Amino acid sequence: MTFSGTVGLIVVIAFFILIIAFAARGRGRPSRNLRDIPAFARLGRAVGNAVEAGTRLHVSLGSGDLVSFHSAVAFMGLSMLRRVARATSISDKPPVATAGEGAIAILSQDTLRSNAREMRIEFDPLSGRLVGLTPFSYAAGALSVVHDEDVGANVLVGNFGSEVALINEAGERSGSLTLAGTDDVPGQAVLYATAQEALIGEETFAGGAYLGAGPMHLASLQVQDIIRWVLILAILAGSLLKLVGIV
Amino acid sequence: MRAPLSTAIAIAIGLVILFGYFLPFGILISLRMVLLEWAVILAAIALLVGIGNLFYVHWRKAARAQSNSFYSVVLLISLVFTLAIVGWFGPTHSYSLWIFNNIQVPIESSLMAILAILLAYAVVRLLRRQLNLFSIIFLVTTVVILVATAPILGVEVPGLNELRTWISQVPAVAGARGILLGVALGILATGVRILVGADRPYGG
Description:
The complex is a heterodimer.
Chain A lengths: L2 H24 L11 H16 L2 E7 L8 H17 L8 E4 L2 H18 L8 E3 L4 H14 L2 E9 L4 H11 L2 E6 L2 H10 L2 E3 L7 H4 L4 H29 L4
Parallel strand pairs in A: 1-2, 1-4, 2-3, 4-5, 5-6
Helix pairs in contact in A: 1-9, 3-4, 5-6, 6-7
Chain B lengths: L3 H19 L3 H38 L5 H21 L4 H36 L3 H17 L10 H10 L1 H25 L9
Helix pairs in contact in B: 1-2, 2-3, 4-5, 5-6, 6-7
């Protein structure tokens, strides 16, 4: 096994152990203080407004596919879809999920179906949809949902490139909130300029913890903080060693 | 636990893929490759199901004459027409390539052109929405990079090219690496949560 492979495996195992340990320690305790991220506070208000006004929420899962590393951010989007669907289960209009890849579209239907079963509400099989297969055709397909389906807020969590600006513009024009996060760096720059609430970097993956998805989500945030500091110290140590000529 | 069987299968397969990636055991590596091939085949089948879903959504919209149903009719006709041509002649035939080069590419290029205008407008709107230090830095950086990359009327401002190179090689790379580090940790955390069954995107 290579050196980088060994380090990778150690990091993954450390992640496993720490997440389980922190989750076990945090179970039954009141939720910890989390850094204030205005986007999630605003999303909470938007969910309440959507239920009161009888509008629906649009969860956009991007055009990343299941068999690449972009699937992780789409899974995060599915996790947020589950929370949003649960929060709006008393509404007349269930949330609508759009995806740019077949498997993610099926998973979005599965998420909404299992929520409907748990909450004992009717499930609409067309509430999880494939809207386009290339990034731009996906954006074009999502535009019609934002414009035509009485959407009160858009939650965009998935793999988006610069085409996400078109969806955000549609949200702006229709007067609905847009909260967006992506794992793509150029896409994040576009989100910063166009989304009403942009999630930057790891904030995209913190949605579960902020929306009350359980102790594992809170534990994973704590472990991310620890591993981040370890990595920062390793980078600084490496730079110092390079500076003094040891490596 | 809800759906214990599907959860157990998902966790077991996830662990095989993970350890097959790191550990140099022949059986694990072979198993990983087979499972990934299955995943690719399933993703292709899911694509067909997704296209069926897309067709049905727009069929219903057109049949109920909902708002903007005209566009749904256009989509349905285009979908059937393209499926027939590409299905009959094959994806590399000149008819199939004509559709791609003369319909798909121009439409996506037009959207890209709209995007350029839209982004310029978005930067101005950003200043209206949140006038703070970061928004001003964002605007100034955008203008410097734009003017240095495509000088107006060919007039080059001395030192601007060097400034653009410094911005794109030092602060931009540092920021991008910081963001990527956070994203990588987020991806790792999501993967671990799925592997321990805390997140179940398969609906269990």
